[in-house]
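Exercise 7.
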Amino acid sequence: MMTREWRLPAWKGSGWLLLALGLSACGVAAAADPVEVTVDRKTYLTQGSFQDVRDNVELAITGRGIVINNVAHIGNMLARTAADVGADITVYQDAEALEFCSATLSRKMMEADRHNIVFCPYIIAVYTLPDDPQQVYISYRRPPIIGSAASQAALREVEDLLDSIIDESLF
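Solution. The predicted structure, written as tokens, is:
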């Protein structure tokens, strides 16, 4: 059986290299930088529509074979209950939190320390503020790096997963 090797002509290959370098210089191929990092949370910011960014996050999660267990419609709940609690502030224009777990990472995390069950599910929130709905925030609660060396390694992997999901969704 004959195998065939596919190659770009030399002039086309250099064009692709220049395109890749140009996209990298524009920040398209580079990893996203968070706008806030605390001990408890990490927050990213991008421009666009809430729905597009939220859908990108969902695709980045499900594209890894991970099932979203729940979508919490936090913005809708706050708007719906505002009058009931005497509130007159619109907290979010849009806000949802996607809850999910990775069977592989969750098992690793809980095998290392069965008390790590409290860190599952993972949650990524996507939201916009009323004063600028084109700025979309993506945020997650950071898992504390605690316990044995195996537990710490697994919790770091969970945070790496959350960062990679967000990075992919921002492309």
